[in-house]
Amino acid sequence: MPTIVLYALIYFTLALVFYSVGVWAERIKKMLKPWHLIFFWMGLITDTLGTAYVKEQVGTVIYNFHTITGILGLLLMFIHTVWATYIIIVNNPKQLSSFHKFSLLVWLIWLIPYFTGLISGMNR
Asked: What span, in angstroms and rounded, lies between the C-alpha atoms of 48 and 91?
């Protein structure tokens, strides 16, 4: 396995684990808690590190389905995490109890580039 694929797999899988724990724990609780936010941030950070690593290794951005959905997924993950941070700070009960619906949607969209990257990495 090429080194670039191995490191990308590690970064993006860590992002998957962290982000999934935050999203599914929040969904089960049906209430956004500060500790969910920690997992959202860890997922965002590891996904960003993985993206930066791949871009550095490849040297350029190749626009294809995987890249476009990856940029969209990372952008949505950023918006989701910043918005969750705001909701925790404001402490609005209605927003705290309904945020999990948005979380699941962002997570599902984020899975598209995760799996397309995993499949394309395995085909190298």
From this structure: 27
Which residue in 103, 84, 102 sits closest to 92, CA to CA?
84
**CA-to-CA distance for 74 and 67, rounded, in angstroms?**
10
pTM of the predicted protein model:
0.89
Query: Scanning the structure block, which residue is given the tokens 């993985």?
Result: 50
Question: 9, 1, 5, 119: which is closest to 58 by C-alpha?
Answer: 5
Structure tokens at 100: 């999990």
Check: CB of residue 107 under 8 Å from CB of residue 68. Answer: no
- The amino acid occupying position 107 is W
Residue 46 CA to chain centroid, in angstroms? 8
Distance spanning both ends of the chain, measured CA to CA: 8
Domain parsing of the chain, residue ranges: 3-122
Model confidence pLDDT, tens digit, residues 18-74: 999 999 999 999 999 999 999 999 999 999 999 888 888 778 778 888 889 999 999
What is the 8-class DSSP label of residue 109? H
